[in-house]
Specification:
mainly alpha, 96 residues
Length: 96
């Protein structure tokens, strides 16, 4: 096999730094993707339950934000036993 000298591409310091920045960005995106995939795998193995004490505040915030966007008034906490996760119940408006 015949060897030849490598072709040298003229590059400035700015070009070299730009390539280094692109490589760093590519590595960070790959690491972020791997973290996301790991988190998705954990969720798939242990799905979130609405009555889980760790996720209950998150569900309540989610329901409160949904109700705020839809213009639904916040339910009084004394009338509903147990955690409220936004499951619609029977209407008490009087119209049948």
């Amino acid at each position: 096999m015949i060897r030849r000298t490598p072709t040298m591409i003229p590059m400035s310091d700015a070009d070299v730094q730009e390539i280094r920045d692109l490589v760093i960005d590519q590595k960070s995106r790959f690491e972020a993707k791997q973290k996301t995939l790991l988190a998705m795998k954990k969720v798939a193995e242990h799905p979130i339950q609405p009555n889980d004490p760790e996720t209950l505040p998150w569900f309540q915030l989610l329901v409160a934000e949904r109700n705020r966007r839809l213009g639904i008034p916040a339910p009084s906490t004394g009338n509903i036993p147990g955690p409220s996760i936004g499951i619609p119940g029977p209407s008490t408006s009087g119209s049948s």
